[in-house]
């Protein structure tokens, strides 16, 4: 954007020599400090509604204020130019970034040390002044500041101390700014960090919601639902007063929450934050989760029951008989142990999902949602026993709930197996195989709901209830919806869970999207034998190779930091990239570079290295690109889209998943406009 405004400034200079607006007036002076040291001050008086920019703003923005002091044998500079006025930080719509500027007045200072009794400090200040409507061309004001020391100025002790303290603080701030600007993340590091923290997705609420739904499902389990009236009866009969009954029921509910949240915290402590973050892409864990979910499903189907040791139950039950609040806590513990055969698979699935999200508090938050949903009915029915009359009676329908959850467990397990297949390039669990299995699973679920498929522990189905009929209609419709996917239909509603479109062997959909008119021979790209381009796009999988091609073609670059196990990445490709208004930009206007941060392919030994950022050895393709994303762009979320020019400089602020097609089109258009403006500027200045 800075280059755009510079180019516009040139046009203004060429087309209108009558431009006389000067909203900034500068003044310069020198003030002796002590000994041979002098403080130079540069003051700007800024008209209302206008502002000038800080020295410390990011590349790609407006022209920062800068000072050029000509060297002289009569003095030497001490430190750097310091900003003394209050700086304003705000988001600027024109430049689409956070900026630092000064309004009304701006004061800068530079300390020098004289080598002679007098000197003439010459130099210039370059700055850019803008308001909410326009920016004037960058301006430069020359200055000459005569400096003369006539006598040594005595200082009070406190004044000297204050100056020393101020100098120290200023030096620390300057060093921090310098260190930030010298990193490989470029001068935009500060802004990028603040923006990323504000926009980074927070999946914890999703984990809580999943736990809440799991808790409500657990209530309908045959191990828990019949216990509702018994527990309520216990509190209503044992309580001397209504208030006491309500208090004890609240303690019971809180005890359930404490027990399950403690379980989530133990999982977090056991694995640790780093391990949780790595679970989503670890092949061994994903395969273990696949087996574990199949075991849970078999338990729900009635093959066996998952039971905890009887000694645990007996010990908890004996302590529950002691009474008091401690006894109530052990009653809740007994509930958790007795119902484990039903809740265990739900809890296990929830913990697997929470752990693989990579959030350190995920398991605890998930367990909080689960426990809250589980505790609410016991607490509310204890407070209002008459509500029990509205509950349906226990029966065979409770077992049907378990079986339905068993089918869902099997379907979910396949996603973990798909993650392993993609990360290790087994290439046997293709999209149509995944879909065929889901079609069979939900087809069988439909037949089960209709009473055409039965398990040994099912009660006879005398008639079809209204709820089962509606559920069977939903599952049957979903089954039919998936069938066109066997021929490549995108299936937007579930695209996030399916393997990528490129794994489809028989694909009638993608073939009609066409190919990039400037497409090169894809098998010449590095890693093209490992990765596959989505939607027939000409895609690079190595950063250096992609940038080199962009320079040759004079095109901007879109980096897609992605992952095999990234659900949102697949959804973006299937539901946003595939739209014609987006696809045309990716086909014709950008060089696409996809960098898989979770790939397990070993780098050649000569390409492996010890990172100076994480202090870890980079041994795989995934670690290489993950390291690059964290080091250069200060984020590790996927997908993450970065638009660069052919020199690797950011064109606009990067963004993550955005399922609004129009918003993504605007993102691509803004990058293209910025790139085109830079080309015009370079042509005009060369």
Strand order of the largest sheet: 1-2-8-5
Q: What is the radius of gyration? A: 33 Å
Which structural class should the secondary elements be placed in? alpha+beta
Q: What is the oligomer described by this structure? A: single chain
Alpha carbon gap, first and last residue: 18 Å
pLDDT under 50 segments (min length 5)?
1-20, 151-202, 272-277, 515-522
Instruction: Specify the biggest β-sheet.
Output: 4 strands, antiparallel
Describe this structure in words.
The chain is α+β, with helices and mostly antiparallel strands and 686 residues long. 48% of the residues lie in helices and 15% in strands. It has 20 helices and 17 strands. Strands 1-2-8-5 form a four-stranded antiparallel beta sheet. The protein has a four-stranded antiparallel beta sheet with strand order 6-7-3-10, with no helix packed on it. A four-stranded mixed beta sheet has the order 12-14-13-17, sandwiched between helices. It is elongated and about 105 Å long. The protein starts with a helix and ends with a helix.
Explain briefly what this protein structure is.
By secondary structure, the protein is α+β, with helices and mostly antiparallel strands. The protein has helices at 2-15, 157-181, 189-199, 204-219, 227-238, 242-271, 273-279, 283-300, 310-320, 324-338, 340-356, 362-383, 396-423, 431-449, 466-482, 543-553, 567-577, 580-588, 621-633, 661-685; strands at residues 24-34, 37-46, 51-53, 66-69, 75-83, 88-92, 97-103, 105-114, 118-127, 129-130, 139-148, 539-540, 557-562, 591-596, 609-610, 617-618, 640-644.
Comma- or semicolon-separated keywords:
single chain, 686 residues, alpha+beta, four-stranded antiparallel beta sheet, 17 strands, disordered N terminus
